[in-house]
Design brief:
217 residues, alpha/beta, TIM Barrel, eight-stranded parallel beta sheet, 9 helices, 19% strand, binds D-xylitol-5-phosphate, binds zinc ion
């Protein structure tokens, strides 16, 4: 399976999402960062905007919820038809029940770990999830530097995954210089904001995909 490249529209022009979606037609999924100014010190958009993105995008949406109380809010994003909904482990009251609910509604269910959150407690719960998002920056802002010290989490997840259809996603600071490091550690799904939207997005997507393929696990 070639690397999945999910451009983050956090780096797009917020006043022109329709045009920006047109620039990333070769993406695997469109990564949508929902921030509430509580879980992270930044604010983006909520369900009304995501509903429009869902209607406009021919490419499935990969929703990343950086919000408090995902137990309450996340199912609403699945109900909008999002292909994948990922919530933060640090914010969820009952991650397993929430993931089951998201799957029941029809989305893939993802769990995200901030750089300081250990992966070990989740290794025995992997069958409950369709994706684990290993944050490679502190969540909240685009354009930050890749934190290489979290790579052992991917190695552990890759070893524990077995035959599960579990995607291992990295998000933050993914560029042509860093994507190979994450691919070698075991990531198969790569979020990239600044490095996709600066210059020619489709050329950037192709280059990122090729760079990941050059560094197999
Ligand atoms: C950060 C977001 C990322 C962000 C990545 O909290 O979750 O998705 O857009 O941006 P880059 O690729 O610029 O680090
Ligand atoms: Zn994200």
């Amino acid at each position: 399976m070639p690397a999945r490249i999910n451009p983050s529209i956090l780096a797009a022009d917020f006043a022109n999402f329709e045009r920006e979606l047109g620039r990333i037609q070769t993406a695997d999924l469109v990564h949508v960062d929902v921030m509430d100014n509580h879980f992270v010190p930044n604010l983006t958009f909520g369900p009304a905007t995501v509903e429009r993105l869902q209607a406009l995008s021919g490419i499935p949406l990969d929703i990343h919820l950086m919000i408090d109380d995902p137990d309450h809010w996340a199912p609403g994003y699945a109900e909008l038809g999002a292909f994948s909904v990922t919530f933060h482990a640090e914010a969820a009251r009952d991650a397993v029940s929430l993931a089951r609910r998201l799957r029941e509604i029809g989305s893939r269910a993802g769990i995200a770990l901030k750089p300081g959150t250990a992966v070990e407690p989740f290794l025995e719960l992997l069958p409950e999830f369709d994706q684990v998002l290993v944050m490679t920056v502190e969540p909240g802002f685009g354009g930050q530097s890749f934190i290489e010290s979290v790579m052992p989490k991917l190695v552990a997840l890759r070893a524990a995954r077995g035959d599960l259809d579990l995607w291992l996603q990295v998000d933050g600071g993914i560029t042509l210089d860093t994507i190979g490091i994450a691919a070698e550690a075991g990531a198969d799904t790569f979020v990239a904001g600044s490095s996709v939207f600066s210059g020619d997005p489709e050329a950037n997507i192709a280059a990122l995909r090729a760079a990941a393929a050059d560094h197999p696990h």
